[in-house]
Design brief:
By secondary structure, the protein is an alpha/beta fold. The chain contains 11 helices and 12 strands. Strands 1-2-3-7-4-8-9-10-12-11 form a 10-stranded mixed sheet, with helices on both faces. A two-stranded antiparallel ribbon has the order 5-6. Helix 6 crosses helix 7. It binds beta-D-galactopyranuronic acid (GTR).
Length: about 425
Amino acid sequence: MKRPLIPTLLISCLFIVFQSRAQAPLSNIDETKVPAYTLPDVLKMQNGKTVKNSSEWEKTQRPYIYNLYQTIQFGRYPLQQIPIRFEVMKTNQTLDGLATRKQIRIYLHPTDNKIYTDVLLYLPSKLKKPVPVFIGYNFSGNHTLQADSEILLSQGWVTARAKGVVDNKATDLSRGTDTAQWQLKEILSHGYALATAYYGDLEADHVDGWKTGIRTTLKDELKIQPEEWGAMGAWAYGLSRIYDYLEKDKAIDAKKIALIGHSRLGKAALWAAASDRRFALIVSNESGEGGAALSKRWYGETVKIINGKFPHWFSVNYKTYGDNVGNLPIDAHMLLSLMAPRPLYVASAEGDTNSDPKGEFLSARAASRVYALYGKKGIEVDELPALHQPVGDVIRYHIRAGKHDVTLYDWQQYLAFADRQWK
Ligand code: GTR
């Protein structure tokens, strides 16, 4: 028997739509297509009651949410931490006398000197007292900050996409290829120091990176198996070891150590600051999916896409949510709430649809309820602000024109924000 064509087509179309919605395999960047979604209530405790004050948050709800992040997204964070050893490799004057540049090798293993990360530290030359510092990982090696042969060339694996890289190794042609993202003159003349390190020192950013990274080389010392955590965890762990060094450096004001991360390194920075509450101020620059952007809002990168492209970043468990985002017990506002009550800046760029600017704004706004428990004002406006109109107080947010990047405008906002919080 022949079936009527129109109803058959209709049923097939509905089936396809239903299938693709159920799997959400694609990234959507059409705001009118964003379906309704419900965020988990960050203040709702396991016993069904609502958190009333900061002590209930600290005692019960924060540990509960932090553990959800370990179980679901990032994997276990090592409880054991290895005291660092370090060696100052080189100290130079640079940037026409604006800065003293120190290169410090931080040994991550108790005895093995082959397991280290190199920190490149810029201090304003005219130091009258200890200065605040921003710590941030770089994408392709310390030598990309300045075209200067005095900077040690990163020896590890580097993505072939980075400039001057041959056979996944940096060459002299890589020097100074990333200066624009590190507005050194602006930072230093503002009276701040900058510390950076190459995240690949901890684990190379590819599927097999764990085999030679700290998830393997430190597994006995940290008492954690490689598959119990992901690369994000390894990178987060490294940030805390850089902190360990900086709080010992007499030139640094140990109460003013801020953490900044862009994109995937923003995700790592958020996890580092969730796990280590010593970081006094946090900046998420376009951290997007798995960072500041809401996952349940179907816009930009999705849980499924990120786990497909970067299976080594997060926990094994996280992959089970790719087709099942609606059932995730967490969403990005809960990760941001783990920063409370510390100053938090979340920034987006208009052209960076992959990171879902509005989803980053909405999660920062939703995290503000937790800041309110401490009597701190987060973001109180309901609508995504216009370009270059930062909003919020202890949580601050901006969206700027342009693409996925860290620009002078971004740094100017972060420095002014840190000034205001630390005046
Ligand atoms: C993209 C990734 C994003 C973001 C970005 C980056 O490919 O899908 O989540 O982290 O890389 O780090 O530049």
